[in-house]
Amino acid sequence: MSATKLKRSLKACTGLPEDLNIRLHRAISWLKCAEKHPEDVDLHFLMHWIALNACYALDMQTKDTRTERDKFRQFIENLVKHDQERRIFNLLWERFSGPVKMLIENQFVFKRFWDYQRGEVTSWEGAFRKSNEIAVTCLAEQNVAGLLEILLDRLYVLRNQLMHGGATYGSGINRRQVRDGANMLQLLVPILIDIMMQHPEENWGTLLFPVVKENS
Asked: From CA 135, how far away is CA 99, in angstroms rounded?
């Protein structure tokens, strides 16, 4: 689903809560930016991740005392709950079943592996095996929310490598996971936007950066 089609759908939606309308407008704008660089996997990955961030970024200063992890898990569960066409399932279990398994089994996109390299923890293998076992269980039980959370955890590590200068632009190293991640996000993020657009009754959270007009 292209940014242009999503933008038309958003314009056709009347009565959307203002926060949701702004959130989706911002997300679609980053999808449009990604479409301008179809051959650049680094930019593709980052632009789609920003679009994803626009969808779920929450105001950490609200009275909601849940952790960011709890909020993100709830966001994922809400998306899966409203995905009546099982588009997320089809994407992860059919279209990208191979890349999903490769990302799960890749220690280079596992946060604790890098914590160990920096001397912040004393081991990583046990946690990695446990995470993989949970992912295998999610696959076997068709636990869409559980698998999507693990997958986005892995891609978040990749996001950090790129955003914080931990990778060389256009490098031949780690190209497979960047390419697979970009391809998955390219199809996943529009689905998430469409689900949110179709279910404005859901509480998708408060904007982290609301629109504030400058004084003239």
From this structure: 13
